[in-house]
Amino acid sequence: MKNLLFLILLLVFGFNPFAQEVNIIPQPAYINVESTKKAFIIDAKTQIVVIDSSLMNSADFLNDYLQKYYKLTLNITNVTPNKNFISLVLNTRISEFDNAYILNSSDNKISIAGTSKPGVFYGIQSLIQLIPTNNFNQLSIPSINIIDHPRFDYRGMHLDVSRHFFEVDFIKQYIDYLVLHKMNYFHWHLTDDHGWRIEIKKYPKLTEIGAWRNGSIVGLWPGKGNEGIKYQVLPTAINITPKNAMIKTDDVKHGGFYTQEQIKDVVDYAAKRYITIIPEIEMPAHSMALLAAYPELGTEPNKKYTVAETWGMMNKYNNVLQASDTTFKFLENVLTEVMELFPSKYIHIGGDEASKVWWKQSAVSQQIMKSNGLKNESELQSYFIQRVEKFVNSKGKTIIGWNEILQGGLAPNAIVMSWQGEKGGIEAAKQNHQAIMTPENKMYFNHAQFVKEDSLTAGKPSLLADVYNYEPVPTELNAEQAKYIWGGQGCLWSEYITNPAKVQYQLFPRLDALSEILWSPKEKKNYPDFLQRLKTQFKRYDLMGITYSKKYLSNTF
Predict the structure, then answer these.
(1) Whole-structure pTM value
(2) pLDDT at position 250, please?
(3) Which of 4, 48, 168, 316 sits 20 to 30 Å CA-CA off 279?
């Protein structure tokens, strides 16, 4: 009786209980597994067919992946054999969507057709997720049809290298993590109070002085004591009594920076993977590292600034640039070198957490406001951002800023990155400006993954379910306004992240959830199904040597 039921299911419904599972993240728009048909086997005789040479990046990426994890290198040819091949094709007519792809697999061949070079590359990422992680002897790809395209044009992930510096090799690994999840923007946070990480040839002191700090806070602010503790007194701190102005830091010098040649190398590496790198140069605040090197650009030019050793002290020390012609000329020279290194159309200029008190107490700032008819310090902030934007626009680029750039009036062409909830993104969209949604309570992956985290993290938990269930398009926007939501981004700030393994731990699996928010059709989202597919993804992470929380392997999290 059981055998008869099996045959009926097999013949009538094409159901095969032994068929290979398909667990792709992010979930494709359409997927159909033909479980009754034979699988395709990738072996040493399989060839990659590339007739259009512009698709060699995709072919090389697949080959590199197979060699690295399966010790298998395939021949790449422009001649189509009768069978046992993987073909990569450009075809703009297969879909109305940008960067779409269609993947078809049978027992004789696999074909990946894309409407663009990135589309073909995204098809490669889906193919990689079809390769078994537990059977290296037979790389069996199920007979399958996938039709897929991204939901949002901007699918971003951020990394802060100022609080803690990460070497070039790891930055490339980080980019590959984004690639696997079909992300297309890497927001590289290169400067802040705690370290200037990019070589600027015109101003060598930015890296000679600004790239190094003499210690780091121990634990959460105001720090905790152990051997080797010193105390840093902040005499100009606002609303801090002498008692709690004693900030506990260690004596370990920390720093590093990327040379311009290293930057070019990383940009080229990312471009071959269809990742656009958006550099961030913070201004007018978060500039302690800059001011340590060039104090004359601050509102207290006679002050001895030092590269900040603490975090968690927003607006407690003077890290604000003076809005003077000298400062703007300096920033224009810096941005000129930055824009020559990064082909991205977009430059992130920060704009967040600029305490107005430093401009209020500066006679020079007050004179600048008077000369330019500015009513208050919020308008001075807007004046600062708009002057920088005018220069960036003159170079054919567009600025992105955190939502504080709305203060005092939004610069004419600016894109708003909304981190303090959704309000900034909503306001920007209503003003017909593009917005990128990255609300801190959902999209900050430096926050704890669990209510009871087993390592030091910042802020309240950002749970996997909360990330997955986030919807980037606010309900307050009508259909026309919603078009200005460009996409979303996850942020990874490195205050409590000192090594690559911790980066991985904080990133995974929340990056998986983020990718599905930004790529998959809204109606395809299904959290229980996502958790099931995640089990296979974890096996892939084991194969790739990636650290992630083992708690997600159980049902107790």
Answers:
(1) 0.94
(2) 86
(3) 316
